[in-house]
Design brief:
By secondary structure, the protein is an alpha+beta fold. It contains three helices and nine strands.
Length: 190
């Protein structure tokens, strides 16, 4: 297993972990910065102090209860649905590509794309807020038109790695895709 440090499009530190399970199977994982307990504590304290100030002015205990309840519900929603700690890509030449997002709460979201649907993996560019950002995406083959693309599946949407990191992932994916293209096609069972 090999790990390298990079930066995201926003400048945050990220780490790319590459693991080669076999010649035609690689796992690439981008881990973003962990949730900082200091910033979480500061935000919670600020909300609760503001609620306490309102309680002192209004002398209504419902304000404190509501602040505590809203803060806890907000934290649970953030950890379970928003904060992604790691995004991984498992490329298996004979089967397909598995895309997994791991949330701070431990929840995982996984999507599998069969290799027969994959036309190519490319680095695309987009203009966002007066700057060019790059992203990796999977082009899915159009079943009706072998030369066409039916869908574009963007990868690493949360961590948003910079171009140097994307090139590493792109090269790994292309090595496996090239093996698949050069491998002799089986004629089936007779």
């Amino acid at each position: 297993m090999e790990e390298r440090r990079y930066r995201s499009a926003s400048g945050a530190p990220i780490a790319l972990r590459r693991r080669q399970h076999s010649a035609s199977c690689r796992e690439l994982a981008v881990r973003g910065p962990r949730l900082q307990l200091r910033s979480l504590s500061a935000l919670t304290s600020a909300v609760w102090l503001a609620a306490y100030g309102l309680f002192v002015l209004s002398e209504n205990s419902v304000v404190l209860s509501a602040a505590i309840f809203i803060t806890l519900i907000g934290l649970i929603i953030y950890l379970h649905f928003v904060k992604i700690d790691q995004e991984s890509l498992l490329v298996i030449g004979s089967l397909g590509i598995q895309v997994t997002s791991s949330y701070a709460s431990g929840k995982e979201s996984t999507t599998f794309i069969e290799m027969g649907q994959v036309k190519d993996v490319v680095i695309n560019e987009a203009i966002h807020m007066q700057k060019v950002i790059y992203y990796l995406c999977i082009l899915l083959q159009d079943p009706g038109d072998p030369q066409g693309v039916s869908e574009v599946v963007p990868l690493f949407q949360s961590s948003k790695p910079r171009l140097d990191c994307l090139i590493e992932v792109y090269k790994s994916c292309q090595e496996i895709l090239e093996q698949r293209k050069t491998a002799p096609q089986s004629s089936g069972i007779k």
